[in-house]
């Protein structure tokens, strides 16, 4: 049988919970190795579409045990605690921009980290911490510099609150965890596979030389258009969902170096936009159809979908239902849901 991009995409959709959802958000995040949260509400959306929900499910209950921290590629993620700790250990030797930035400002990362630790003897809100620093905040926390640095060392994280974030400081365990890199590597291909070594290096934000390639012997692989794709298990029941609604910075958009499998080259500028923005998108039977976004107004969330060709009424109804369920999960109500053709 000759493989197509749809065969690989079907496996990815299945492995990522888009065909059979994960039982809860903590289980999802331990498998996904975190979900990017550059835009918190879109990060929550990408968790929502991959997990099961009861009629009375709500965001506050479902993400109670999740944290927010800076991880691979120095980006902001929802994590379960163990995955964040493992990721911090794996990335510990990787240098990040904060070191150069603090040196250029004539500031000491060690000194300022110890000062931050004193402020965080008890968890406090981001707004309260900002008040402690006053005018210094804009320099020390430019691009979240001081938080990113300490989060990457496994000692600072946040928790989501509807109107703020709660910041925690916990010293990491001194216990040495053996083969953590191999476990993370295996998890990547189980959730994101089929994927290439270049994809894995992109996901972790390291060079391919830092990957534990000895672990590849435990994986299956296939050759597609001159690239070797690794995966844990071929799912014979995997199919292409009729409708996929993916939020900004969705795992399907940020976790791979090679983008052409899902988004054709001519459409990529509409998805991977200027200033590092990655759009929320509509996918119909594995084909990119357009973008969407939302705005919150009190207890209402308004949605706008802009597609490159007309959506059928059937597909519009499916998308509306997803938006309405997400709004309810967020303890809000879906307001206007507008469909436009570009």
Automatic annotation (TrEMBL):
This is Winged helix DNA-binding domain-containing protein. Pfam families: AlkZ-like. It comes from the Bacteria.
């Amino acid at each position: 049988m000759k493989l197509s991009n749809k065969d690989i995409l079907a496996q990815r959709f299945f492995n990522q919970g888009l065909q059979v959802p994960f039982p809860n958000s903590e289980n999802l995040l331990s498998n996904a190795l975190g979900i990017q949260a550059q835009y918190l509400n879109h990060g929550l959306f990408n968790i929502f579409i991959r997990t099961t929900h009861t009629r009375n499910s709500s965001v506050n209950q479902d993400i109670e045990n999740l944290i927010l921290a800076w991880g691979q590629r120095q980006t902001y993620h929802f994590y379960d605690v163990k995955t964040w700790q493992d990721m911090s250990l794996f990335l510990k030797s990787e240098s990040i921009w904060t070191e150069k930035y603090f040196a250029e400002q004539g500031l000491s990362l060690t000194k300022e980290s110890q000062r931050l630790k004193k402020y965080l003897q008890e968890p406090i809100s981001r707004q309260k911490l900002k008040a402690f620093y006053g005018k210094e905040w804009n320099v020390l926390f430019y691009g979240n510099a001081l938080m990113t640095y300490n989060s990457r060392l496994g000692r600072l994280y946040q928790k989501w609150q509807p109107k703020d974030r709660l910041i925690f400081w916990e010293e990491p365990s001194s216990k040495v965890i053996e083969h953590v890199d191999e476990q993370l590597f295996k998890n990547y291909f189980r959730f994101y596979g089929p994927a290439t070594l270049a994809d894995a290096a992109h996901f972790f934000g390291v060079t391919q030389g830092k990957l534990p390639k000895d672990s590849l012997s435990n994986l299956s692989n296939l050759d597609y258009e001159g690239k070797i794709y690794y995966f844990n298990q071929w799912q014979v029941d995997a199919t292409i969902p009729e409708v996929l609604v993916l939020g900004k910075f969705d795992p399907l958009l940020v976790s791979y170096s090679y983008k052409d499998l899902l988004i054709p080259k001519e459409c990529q500028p509409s998805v991977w936009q200027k200033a590092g923005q990655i759009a929320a998108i509509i996918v119909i039977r594995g084909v990119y159809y357009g973008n969407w976004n939302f705005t919150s107004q009190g207890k209402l969330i308004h949605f706008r979908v802009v597609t490159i060709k007309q959506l059928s009424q059937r597909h519009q109804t499916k998308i509306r239902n997803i938006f309405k369920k997400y709004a309810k999960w967020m303890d809000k109500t879906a307001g206007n849901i507008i469909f436009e053709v570009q």
